[in-house]
Amino acid sequence: MSYLVVGVRFKKAGKIYYFDPNDLPLAVGDGVIVETSRGVEYGMVVTGPREVPEEEVVGSLKKVLRKAEAEDLEQLMANREKEKKAFDICLEKIAAHGLPMKLVDVEQTFDGNKIIFYFTADGRIDFRELVKDLASVFRTRIELRQIGVRDEAKMMGGLGCCGRELCCSMWLSDFASVSIRMAKDQNLSLNPTKISGICGRLMCCLKFENEAYEQAKEKFPEPGRRVITPDGEGKVNGINIFKQTVHVELKESKLVKEYPCSAIEVETPVGDQNETINAKTEDHGEQGARTVERDQKCEKPGGNAGNRK
Questions:
Q1: How is the beta sheet containing 64-67 ordered, strand by strand?
Q2: Exposed, middle or buried, 126 (CB in 10 Å: 0-12/13-18/19+)?
Q3: Of 107, 120, 298, 133, which is closest to residue 219 (Cα–Cα)?
């Protein structure tokens, strides 16, 4: 079973929610009025009408009420002005109550039935008295929502160390898990100031490039693997995927030298019969004790391993 839906986004880099187009002639870029769990909201169509399978629809599929009109845009602008005033009033109330919290943003639903205040804090905050004060001022439903530092950066926006606007505030709708292991795999400095975003957490772009690094490393011998170089036996000390070279610590001299990936041969464990290459001596018929695995690693980028023999 499938449903005809349109994708609606309520914020610039927010999540996309599916709604029933309700037989309306909707196209990408149209403003629409929809009913959500928070109330009536204004959103923007970002994906035109299309069929999606049932499993992609979360919960009940609500209908688009109508296309946004000029009056709706005026109401939207009026709400934005109210949000600015609400922000200033909330700051005064927070200071009056002496609460250790930082106000980040304010949102008012399109129909004005609820005002949501987003804030950050180090721990749990007892804001019950603050809610009462705000409710007495605005005479509507009040919700205070604590968010994390990554969500704060998404709402506030800014410039990253690359000089571009933050990905989270521009187009990134969901935050992916980022680990310090990704920085290690990409040979980056582990200095927190160099691999952290303005939110103080590991940069999201570490996740973007991680898959490419993992695929590139598959073509190289693992660190610690025994290899044969033009200068003798050695052990892999490191790799450079951009230069397509391998750093090898030589067995005899203990020097670390850099070799092109194509110039080394990877030793194969003696017990591995499937990858053993027998070197026979024609004169004496003796079987060589050294076994090597040729060209199983160090493939050039873009090479087709299926053409190898």
A1: 16-19, 2-9, 39-53, 31-36, 64-67
A2: exposed
A3: 298
Q: Is 159:166 a contact under the CB 8 Å cutoff?
A: yes
pLDDT tens digit string along 174-184?
888 888 988 88
Closest Cα partner for 265 from 244, 288, 292?
Answer: 292
Half-sphere exposure of 102 (CA within 13 A, CB side): 11
Show Cβ contacts of residue 203 under 8 Å, excluding neighbours closer than 6 positions.
160, 161, 178, 195, 196, 197
Tell me the residue type at 241: I
Using one digit for the tens of pLDDT, what is the confidence trace for 46-103? 988 888 887 778 777 888 998 988 998 999 999 999 999 999 999 999 999 999 999 9
**DSSP H or E segment with residue 145:** strand 141-146
Please state, in angstroms and as integers, the Cα–Cα distance from residue 77 to each residue in 12, 42, 110, 303, following that order. Answer: 16, 11, 10, 56
Entry field: residues in the chain: 309
Cα separation of 41 and 239, whole Å? Answer: 53
